[in-house]
Design goal:
Strand order of the largest sheet: 3-6-9-12-15-18-22-21
Radius of gyration: 15 Å
Mean pLDDT: 75
Number of domains: 1
Length: about 200
């Protein structure tokens, strides 16, 4: 089951929404997008009971235009944010946790699949905002950021916050990094981390 299925061809804004499907056997996807531009602020999605084999996650985007997330909290039994051929994702703030509960689970905070047509750009934090080692938090039981398919067509800008994963903080290094700061790696609570200092 999908909690929100959005297919409009015009911009969509979601604000102050809370969705909880944390029980086992819950929603396949908290929010599934197709062909839209989306802005979300102060939205909470909990689909941690979502352990369906495929096409499941807190926010699943298929062929969408752009997504902007501000102060959202997304937890899923699969990927917190799953992008398939989506052109732009901007994560300004919030917490995003992908658990590895499904049989074919991605288990990443952000999982990206792009191709030569949809050359995805992912931006985490802002280069001009005050330096933070915690906000946004992108966390996954496997990777924090998993650029797993056609990764040469994806551009990742990592400016602020923290990436956390049990396998690694990220599967491939970010293309753009915060100026005037050093990318550090470490570990905390069984997770490998990457953050700026």
């Amino acid at each position: 089951m999908v909690v929100f299925l959005l297919r409009k061809k015009r911009p969509v804004t979601l604000t102050g929404i809370g969705v909880d499907f944390s029980a086992p056997g819950g929603a396949r996807a908290g929010t599934q997008l197709s062909g839209i531009n989306l802005m979300m602020s102060n939205v909470t999605i909990n689909s941690s009971g979502c352990s369906y084999a495929t096409n499941s996650g807190g926010l699943v985007s298929c062929y969408a235009g752009s997504i902007t997330l501000d102060n959202c909290n997304i937890t899923s039994g699969n990927g917190a944010i799953e992008l398939e051929c989506t052109k732009s994702l901007v994560v300004n703030s919030g917490t995003y946790y992908g658990q590895a509960l499904g049989k074919m689970s991605d288990g990443s905070g952000i999982a990206v699949a792009s191709d030569s047509t949809y050359k995805a750009t992912v931006t985490i934090g802002s280069n001009s905002a005050a330096l933070s080692t915690t906000n946004p938090t992108i966390k996954g039981d496997i990777y924090g950021l998993d650029n797993y398919y056609y990764n040469t067509t994806t551009t990742v800008y990592f400016y602020n916050g923290i990436l956390q994963g049990k396998t690694a903080a990220y599967s491939s290094a970010p293309t753009g990094r915060r100026s005037g700061a050093t990318l550090r790696s470490g570990s905390s609570g069984g997770f490998l981390t990457a953050y700026f200092q």
